[in-house]
Amino acid sequence: MADIDLMKSLTQPGTTKAILLVLDGLGGLPREVGGPTELEAAFTPNMDKLAREGSVGLINTVDMGITPGSGPGHFGLFGYDPLKHLIGRGVLEAVGIGLTLTEQDVAARGNFCTVDENGLITDRRAGRISTQECARMVSLIDDITLPGVEVIVKPVQDYRFALILRGPRLCSALNETDPQKVGLKPLKLRPLDGSPEARNTADLANEWVARVSERIKDQRPANMVTLRGWSSEPGLSKFEDVFKMKAVALAVYPMYKGLASLVGMTKVDGLRNLDDQLEALRRNWEAYDFFFFHYKYTDSRGEDGDFDAKVKEIEKVDAIIPNFLELNPDVLVITGDHSTPAVLRSHSWHPVPLILWAPGMTRANPDVTGFGETQCLKGALGQFNASYLMKLITAHAQRQAKYGA
After folding, report:
1. What is the spatial distance between Cα 186 and Cα 176, in angstroms, rounded to a whole number?
2. b (16+ CB within 10 A) / e for 270-290
3. What number does CATH give the domain 100-231?
4. Model pLDDT, residue 71
5. Are strands 352-357 and 105-115 parallel, antiparallel or unpaired?
6. Strands of the sheet with 266-267, listed across from one edge
7. Other Cβ atoms closer than 10 A to 128
8. What is the pLDDT of residue 108?
9. What average pLDDT does this structure show over 86-101?
């Protein structure tokens, strides 16, 4: 029996409440051998206390040795095996801004970038242009048409936009055009499975990119685009059907709202910062059972390569922990969707620290004195794949029936 089917059969309704607090890219590495990671260098008295009182461990959000994208990382946290349910960022971005996908759609996430006079990328994110500037740039290209398909282009946030191609004979089996390094040209789109549908889609998308390039070549700093995360609507089992918990997503960035929407969580729009998120948490506390609370900037500072700034972002989140505890949750989990060490400036395969705090339900380890990668190596939870996490959450929330006689 598949895990999703198993959980459908075991979980049951209840009155307990759980919070999943995700610090995006939480895991890290020391900047010098033998030194602390970003989490270990941060002043986190509230998380340290929860680590001492609860259970800690390390999770691989996809599998050991695999570097997760944000989509697979979150689906693992939500209880879906990301090796079975691979969903591209295109769908996540589109759904996150409220677009509805049909069976004829393929979607991609777009980035505005900067290229030099030779077409070489000098900034993969066009200086992290504002959302307002992104909307202006989209207005320069949203009337480009292609033969036989409908083209939908919408701004998302900062330098990101969503692209949807809608029509017959389309396929999402395409490569990404971002080479992931500066000094290289954007890649051409090519089919990954050799099907006529994939070849047709690659041809259409390459034509669109060429026309976009011509339109915006004289703009600055955004004068080119890259496309990634080609995907189609996945048809996942809904979170509430599987785990019997009515869930709400409290996220600022559209992509993470999209992740939550795909599994049927209610998304709260209009959130701009931690204060908005906390107010929404309090406002919705009685109406929901499960609260996905996402914080992005730990990941952003890691990708910037700024160790000290990532430390400060972790400390910002630690300072709001008492706001969660005032609501008396039955389960509070604190973790990340992947590691983003500042020394690597990118996502990595390193396991992510995790606290599972459930008063009266967890076994504390006296050897654990705080929250960090080294401390989590001593934890009662050990190291496990994140797709098991929702089993632990529902068990500690006393929302599971016994398995077997």
Report:
1. 9
2. ebeebeebbebbeeeeeebbb
3. 3.30.70
4. 85
5. unpaired
6. 266-267, 247-250, 290-295, 18-23, 331-335, 352-357, 55-60, 382-385
7. 14
8. 95
9. 82
Q: Which two tokens stand for residue 301?
A: 């500072």
Residue pair 353/372 in contact by the 8 Å Cβ criterion: yes
Q: What's the confidence (pLDDT) of residue 363? A: 84
Q: How far apart are CA 385 and CA 29, in angstroms?
A: 20
Q: Is 250 helix (H, G, I), strand (E, B) or coil?
A: strand
CB neighbour class for 350 (10 Å; exposed up to 12, middle 13-18, buried from 19): buried
Whether residue 139 contacts residue 161, with contact meaning beta carbons closer than 8 Å, is answered with: no
Do the Cβ atoms of 56 and 381 come closer than 8 Å?
yes
| Fold of the 15-87+235-396 domain | Alkaline Phosphatase, subunit A (3.40.720)
Please, which pLDDT band fits residue 95 given cuts at 50, 70 and 90?
A: confident
| 261, containing H or E segment | helix 254-262
Run of H or E including 227 = strand 224-231
100-120: per-residue pLDDT in tens? 888 899 999 999 999 999 999
Among residues 83, 31, 116, 38, the alpha carbon closest in space to that of 301 is found at: 38
Question: Given the structure tokens 């959000």, which residue do they identify?
Answer: 61
**Mean pLDDT in the chain?**
94
Q: Under a CB-based contact definition with an 8 Å cutoff, are residues 250 and 294 in contact? A: yes
Domain ranges of the chain: 15-87+235-396, 100-231
Phi, psi of 79 (to 5 degrees): 100, 10
Is the entire prediction scored with pTM above 0.85?
no
* % of the chain surpassing 90 pLDDT: 84
Q: How many CB atoms lie within 10 A of CB 206?
A: 16
Fold agreement between 15-87+235-396 and 100-231 = no
Q: Find where tokens 């980035």 sit.
A: 111
Residue 278 β-bridge partners: none
